[in-house]
Amino acid sequence: SCMIRLPRNRPAIENRGVDSAANTYLATALIVAAGLEGIEKNLHPGDPVSSQTYDWQAPPPGATRLPRTLLEAIDAFAADPLVHSVFAPGFVSDYVAMKNEEWDAYHAEVTDWERARYLLNL
User: Fold this and answer.
1) What contacts 82, CB < 8 A, 6 or more positions away?
2) Residue 73 C-alpha from the chain's centroid
């Protein structure tokens, strides 16, 4: 789905790239900084999309797919110059290290899905 959506049924702006697991304060800081950067640099937000985006096999030219995993999100966060202008270097390195530890811990677990798919079907 699109990250930013303007619903037709009510006056609102939906940021669909942020979910309930996100830190509200960090997400808000980056959203505000990104908006200000766009205004200051006169960045084009991209053409509006009015079609259903759930079926896209790949994003069309000019569109960027958001990270699909925590690891992709960590890498994108660490590589974004805006992140480094908004947050202190120590915070960025500590946050990236913490999230990498979270990713590693998650992948150290064998899930019920993996057991059913791989172990029980031998």
Assistant:
1) 30, 33, 34, 37
2) 6
